[in-house]
# Entry
Amino acid sequence: MSADDGSDKYPDDSGRRRFVKGVVGGATLVGVGGTGVATVNSATSSSGAGGGTTQSWAIENVGGPAPRGMPMVPVEVTGGGDIRGVWPEVQTVNEGGLRVQIAAEENFKNSGTTYSQEWFQYCGVESYAGLDPTYESDNLFRVGSNPAYDWQGEAYEEGDPLNIDDFGDYETWNNEFGDPLGKPATATWRSQESESTMPVQVIRSPLVERLANGEGDIAGAARSWLQAATDQGVVAWLNKCTHFCCVPGWKQTADAATFGDANEVYCQCHQSLYDPFSVVQTLFTARPRPQ
# Structure
């Protein structure tokens, strides 16, 4: 299937939709889903230090009551193969007459996107220790106390960093749920020695590799972000449902098929669905970070 045939399908060998474009435009920012229907991803909250109107790249919400997608965490693979989430540069700015520190990076990796900690300031995460711009962390994705996938329990102990070598079978890995589209893991991010744990979901996928390489129908802005946000086919997002702050999962339960698609990220609490292979821009009001 060619990239310019006007269809909205994933590459032929995957049988799924491709990443879709995010339409940028301030207050009129919308995410265009695979159905072609435009919806405004928005929420309201008081602005404050490190908060306010925020645009982020997210995996698309495709079903259920969630108001928008979950924000992506750009990833890097270290020289030793460990996988980490990139934290934006820390800077001091004037905001509301005060000098405050924020972590924000304009034109992140030449993607044209301003990547900011504000992406993650919802569901109470804004008060977590890891959201302090200067929180000391190596930013590695580390295995939590109760990983969602059996293979993690066999390969790691709690606190071990995810390593790219352990995703070697990502092209063929599958469990009893859905299709073999990549190999998943759950982890924590910026949560060492903290009572507040920031959960992330990680997938290494050949589909992501192809899309990042420009194969398939992917919009320029979305492609630029994806190229900046992935490394060796790995993508990640803050795994906090934007509806009621539950922790969803990809290919973790057969219930996903009951409520839409076994290949989607599924939140059991209220049946919201997210497509990990569709990236859109969202507009919402980030909560202020407590000082």
Summary: The longest helix spans residues 220-229. The longest strand covers residues 272-286. Residues 10 and 18 are 4 Å apart (CA to CA).
